[in-house]
Design brief:
Layout: H1 3-15, H2 18-25, H3 29-43, E1 48-51, E2 54-57, H4 59-87, E3 91-98, H5 106-116, E4 120-127, H6 129-137, E5 143-144
């Protein structure tokens, strides 16, 4: 049994007419007829009786119609859920940040990440800049914030802002 057979069954049941159901489903009349025959064979029950002007559900067909609709609805829900999962970001993201860095609005970053990607687990590790770079290189971190003029080969950085550190001493 496949979903096309169930769709054909439900359409024929709603329209009481095989040709009209085939048109609704954009299949040929012989294909729709084959769907019904295959479904009847699989289920071991006759679903329709021929009547002048169309088809009518048998008593067994009437009992199975609700189940067929439920299966089709569940199939639609499954596809919808799969599309939602495919669009969502899932997993763990390990981010290294400098210890006590007031330069990064970390609370805003965490809040925005959780809002935008609720299924993403954000793990934040506070490290010095050298350990952030090393963590990315050895695969312990996925990304990080570091103070660094040059990065080792294989890493790329994005300048966020210029920071000026001054040595302060008495005149």
């Amino acid at each position: 049994m496949d979903l096309n057979q169930l769709r054909t069954f439900v359409s024929v049941a709603e329209l009481d007419h095989l040709t009209q159901a085939a048109e609704r489903l954009h299949v040929s009349q012989p294909a729709a007829s084959a769907h019904i025959k295959a479904l009847e064979l699989t289920l071991g029950i006759k679903l329709f009786e021929r009547r002048p002007g169309g088809l009518a559900l048998t008593a067994g067909g009437q009992e199975l119609l609700g189940c067929a609709r439920e299966v089709l609805a569940a199939s639609t829900a499954l596809c919808s859920k799969a599309r939602e999962i495919a669009r969502s970001v899932v997993g763990k993201f390990r981010l290294g940040v400098r210890v006590a860095s007031a330069l990064i609005p970390l609370q805003d970053l965490v809040r925005a990440t959780r809002h935008r990607h609720p299924k993403l687990e954000l793990e934040i590790r506070q490290l010095n800049s050298l350990n952030v770079v090393n963590g990315i290189q050895n695969g312990e971190l996925d990304a990080g914030f570091a103070l660094s003029r040059q990065l080792p080969p294989g890493l790329v950085g994005l300048d966020l802002r210029q920071v000026t550190y001054r040595v302060v001493a008495p005149v």
